[in-house]
Model the fold of this input.
Amino acid sequence: MKKLLLAALLMAMSSLASAVDLCTPNCYVRSGAAGTNDGTSWANAYTTLAFALTTSNTAGNNFWVADDHAEATGAAVTLTSPGTSAAPIKIVCVNHLGSTPPVAADLCATPTAVVGPGAVGSNLSLVGHAYHYGITYSSGTGSNNNNVLINTTNGGYQYFDNCLIKKAGTLVSTGAIGIGGSQFDSNVVFNNTPWHLGNGLDTVSKRAGRLTWQNTANAIQGTTLLGALFGTNNHAAGPVRIIGVDLSMVPSLQLATASPSDFYFEDSKLPSDIGPITAPTSLGGAETYLIRSGSSAVNYTHYKAAFSGTLASNTSVVRTGGATNGTTPMSWKIDTTAGAGWVSPFSSLPMAVWNDTVGSNVTVEVYGTWGEGAVPKNDDIWLEVRYLGSASSPMATFVATTKASLLAADADVTSDASSWSGGTTPFKLSATLSAPQPAQAGDIYVTVKAAKPSTTFYIDPVVRVAGVATGKSRILAPGVFATDAGGSAGGGSTGFIRLR
Done:
């Protein structure tokens, strides 16, 4: 009886010991370690990251992964972080011959440690809240189509810094890198982290949650892409921001036309032959924005593609004395689609101008031209203006210069004698802010609404306010076209708002 009790006690103590996180807060991972595999030192390091994350389950832990770590299994691998939103874990590649615990000088300069399965049909999945540095996350090898899946089964926060995401198999996959799943609280960030694809027809699948990809040169590695980067199996909402990424090797930015995820390309290098971006096929489809992105050495390029039309910066048809960045005169070329209409107009990027006038009427004006023989009607094109009409709160007051209702009669917009380098009939869109008058100094935001189907308009993207000089115009991330008041030397302000 005593022997049985003793055996039971020893088993309980053994189970308790195995459940204790022995390495908190610094856990070591090295495939070449030959010690006790408990993560307490380089000698006794965990030999796989998968086992480390299962065994060391304390939120906020540091997992120091050796620079010579090589973890390749024959089965699918799921790396589930024990971290939380308040305390993500850190998975960091360091020089295992350096300081203990590691210091800044020990960080791997390039993605060195390798983690991932190699067998056919075995995906690598990363789930939860974690910061990653200097790791190559690789799935597949040879003739297979294994994928790297990030937060596809649950929400979480994954930040990849100086890493490489690698789908190594050479068989085509429409979700070679899967980002986000059914949970809308997913937030995935890639900083200085290229994507490696094994087949020229591989695509990336963006699902629910936010995706930010930034500060990445030579962004696509491993193969020459033959088609679109983002695949047509995108099927859930959440914005995508691509900032400072070199995508000059990508032949197409075409996106899934039914996807509700809006895409923002900001300050990024694009291929010279990118061509037009396909607009969504429904009003709920993804809208695409290019903000100061392109292939040449210009810093004013911007573009929007929506169901009802497209907007592109233009330097061919410009207004004399109109918008300029100080060097290059410019306009907006708006092309509406057959689906545009008064209830579903195309909306330009918002323009902003500072207003100091309070307690008096303020009139804002925007100039345009088109190829028809008469000026457009006010249900073809109009302004939507919002401003600070309340002295007690920032509650916006809206003014629209279109007809009063769906059933109301339309009217001609105002003709204009401005000189343009193209177009046939110039016109002016103006709104008087009088009921109420502006009650606080601040930015006035103006959006052009274009509703006549299958029509081209050219807009001078400067909001004119009587008595206020205008200076340089430029596009501001995440997408406000702003005009400084008080001339090019400043003296005004610009507004920063979302695109929609």
Q: What stands out?
A: Residues 19 and 156 are 24 Å apart (CA to CA). DSSP finds two helices and 35 strands in the chain. Confidence is low (pLDDT under 50) at residues 1-19, 486-500.
